Amino acid sequence: MLVHLAPRADEFVALLAKRLPERTLRHSISVANFIGGIAEQAGVDRDDAITAGLLHDMFKATKAHELLAAAERYEIPITPIQREKPMLLHGAVAAEEARRNLGVTSDGVYEAMFWHTTGRAGLGRVGLALYFCDFAEPLRTMPESAEARARLASDGFIPALLYVAERKVEHVRAKYTVDPATEAFFGWLQQEYR
Predict the structure, then answer these.
(1) Closest CA relative to residue 94, chosen from 134, 132, 125
(2) Better-predicted residue by pLDDT, 1 or 25
(3) Would you say the pTM of this structure is higher than 0.90?
(4) What is the rounded distance in angstroms from the CA atom of residue 90 to the CA atom of residue 70?
(5) Integer Cα distance of 29 and 3 in angstroms
(6) Distance, CA of 64 to CA of 174 (rounded, Å)
(7) How far apart are CA 168 and CA 130, in angstroms?
(8) How many CA atoms within 13 Å lie on the side-chain side of 84?
(9) CATH code linked to domain 3-193
């Protein structure tokens, strides 16, 4: 497992084991292993990638009112859509927690964790890799996740990332109001990489 090669990984896994249900813990470790394995292909530092993969969902099991309270405490601007669906804040709160209380200083890790759910225009490479790996990690059994992994193997990182972004936007548009950051991210990806 690549996870244990990264600095502080064992410490982070122990912390997550106390905070997360087993399924979310397994997902986080799987994302970290997957992103660590594609770090070179995605053009990112392996240790940063693994740290972001491990910690991105550390607030995933947090109740809605607690996420809102944590976002307010950390002075994270809350959009109307996030007030309606506070789970969208779990990445932002995790990023702030990692920076303020866990001593994670990498700006790339912070940004990746903060925006891993919605994306944002101009997202850096660690963020792009986490966005992709969160959807496509090997424990995900959806056919679209398997297809994303197949495209990564056959076509490379950017085409596979574009596939994931298209699937995610289609899914959200069909069920929910799309966060403006997601629309901006999708538009930026289309301009930047098509």
Answers:
(1) 134
(2) 25
(3) yes
(4) 9
(5) 7
(6) 23
(7) 14
(8) 7
(9) 1.10.3210.10
